[in-house]
Amino acid sequence: MDLGISGRWAIVCAASQGLGKGCAEALAAEGVNLVINARTATTLEQTAGELRGRFPAIEVRPVVGDVADPAVRHALLAACPQVDILVNNAGGPPPGDFRDWSREDWLKALDANMLTPIELIKAVVDGMAERGFGRVVNITSGAVKAPIDILGLSNGARSGLTGFIAGLARQQRLAGHNVTLNNLLPGAFDTARLQKTLQAASKVGGDLQATTEARRQAIPAARFGSAEEFGAYCAFLCSRHGGYITGQNLLIDGGAYPGTF
Hints:
Layout: E1 9-12, H1 18-29, E2 33-38, H2 41-54, E3 60-64, H3 70-78, E4 85-88, H4 103-131, E5 134-139, H5 152-168, H6 172-175, E6 179-186, H7 192-205, H8 208-217, H9 227-237, E7 249-252
Parallel strand pairs: 1-2, 1-4, 2-3, 4-5, 5-6, 6-7
Helix pairs in contact: 1-9, 4-5, 7-8
């Protein structure tokens, strides 16, 4: 299927590894030029080099830094000639017990996982509407729909973003001009983030290998997801075929969520 987005420009945050990298790779395969961001220069430059080598027809521009920093957001936007696609993504806050979290911990989580995506969205959606095409995909978490007790900071901050997107996506000044905003809710994907979560859980429940296997067996698909397949879902939402999908929360978890709705 031709996704119809060759030649467009995308900003992909937290793109040096994991799900963000999977999204960047899938968009690059469709001929989308990329501005990619991550906090660590070495891994970001390595990813940029890989993308240029695999997809020589596109441009890849890395911007290093914490996207929660306004100066980094400015540099990210300045590096992108025209933002047609925005993929918001940030590493989740650390797991733990809410009794141990300070107000500063909460503000940091909200800034990274709610307010920063909103600032980037605010900077790009009106231009998208004027041009008649725009796609915003926020990578949140399956914990938005089925909260995980040790991920309270993430549960709270990402749920706030979810509620905001539900209202914004339905503005006719955006949806009526082919601008869509959707959230991808990953379940257990084989990433460094999952490994940290499993390690934290194993400290409470015992052996890491046993904890990992129990988590895997709790998934009807009997496996963890891959970054490549996650990227493919993202690329479809960003395609010309995705114009009638907006304000949605797509749960991708191998069937782990037990509910009907």
